[in-house]
Amino acid sequence: MSTLRETFLEELADIYDAEKQLLKALPKMAEAARNPELKSGFEMHLNQTEGHVNRLEQVFQVFGEKAKGKKCKAMKGLIAEGEDLIDDGEGDAALICAAQKVEHYEIATYGSLKSWAQQLDQQDAARLLEQTLSEEKATDDKLTQVAENVVNLEEEQAEHVHSE
Ligand code: FE
Ligand code: FE
């Protein structure tokens, strides 16, 4: 059985790769978004994601390890689904759903990493992970808000078509 430290470092390498995959995917999502609030939200999260990569490198350092990624299959799948729905022209509501799946995946990982860092008595690492965790949660909340506007807008447009 792995030690908690080994499990921690495995997950750290997984999310490090996941964040890097996301750095490449977010510009495509921003480009595909039609709602300006959603577009700027993706652009802002791209900036934040650069910070997430940076914080993970600091966490590796705290643990005396070199920053190294391990292919994250889950993020690869989540991004592939997102690309499919962009290709199919499914629109903003579907794009938001795909983005929230990504955020929830990240939230699950950062939540575990943070509590493991505490158990391993690495408070500096726990603090860094908590900062990113709270940004992921804020992004998820923001997406929920934008989703309400997007859906309302689409319904208004549909009503408008009906009344013509
Ligand atoms: Fe992130
Ligand atoms: Fe994120």
Rounded radius of gyration (Å): 18 Å
Encode the helix/strand succession as letters: HHHHH
**The CATH class:** Mainly Alpha
Low-confidence stretches: none
Mean pLDDT: 95
Question: How would you portray this structure in words?
Answer:
The protein is an all-alpha fold. The protein has one domain: Ferritin, core subunit, four-helix bundle (Ferritin), CATH 1.20.1260.10. It has five helices and no strands. The chain has helices at 4-32, 36-62, 73-87, 92-119, 123-163. Helix 1 (4-32) runs antiparallel to helix 4. The mean pLDDT is 95. Bound molecules: fe (iii) ion (FE) (2 copies). One fe (iii) ion binds at residues 19, 49, 52, 106, 136.
Task: Name a few traits of the molecule.
5 helices; Ferritin; binds fe (iii) ion; mainly alpha; 164 residues
Summarize the structure.
The chain has 164 residues and is an all-alpha fold.
SSE order and pairing:
Layout: H1 4-32, H2 36-62, H3 73-87, H4 92-119, H5 123-163
Helix pairs in contact: 1-2, 1-3, 1-4, 2-5, 3-4, 4-5
One fe (iii) ion binds next to helix 2.
